[in-house]
Amino acid sequence: MQARIPLADLRAMVGQELGVSDWQLLDQARVTAFAEATGDHADIHTRPDSAAAQALGGTIAHGFLTLSLLSSMLQQFLPGVEGYNGLNSGFDRVRFTAPVPVGSRVRGRFTLDRLEDAPSGGLALRWSAKVEVEGQDRPALVAIWLNRFIPITGT
Fold this sequence. Notes:
Layout (H helix, E strand, L loop, with lengths): L6 H5 L5 E4 L3 E3 L1 H11 L4 H4 L4 H5 L7 H6 L1 H6 L8 E13 L7 E14 L5 E11 L7 E11 L4
Antiparallel strand pairs: 1-4, 2-4, 3-6, 4-5, 5-6
């Protein structure tokens, strides 16, 4: 794992694209495991032979599976900030803009829109995030993602 980056370095990145993650394969085994974990066994995700899947040419990944990958994608180039622990605090906007066919590879693209000092002594970050599907022009997901970074205490 990479070392946490200094806060000053992160502040200097506001308004810039921070990075693009590696490609991740969304194969049927991963989609099925997500269905098991969440209880969402819709045919469009789990049964390649269903009429719903056939209409799209095969099964597609859950939108929430795609969304859940944002954390691991971001951590590839932002493993953390020195002196802080990161938390998800929500989304101002999430749109699933294109299906992700099972067997596709996806990657995340992140721009740090805002970084502010929070009243609690922590940090409030806002990201523009996209999940791209290899070989497709349209992203699978676009989001405005909010994080809090809280000071590490008692180490």
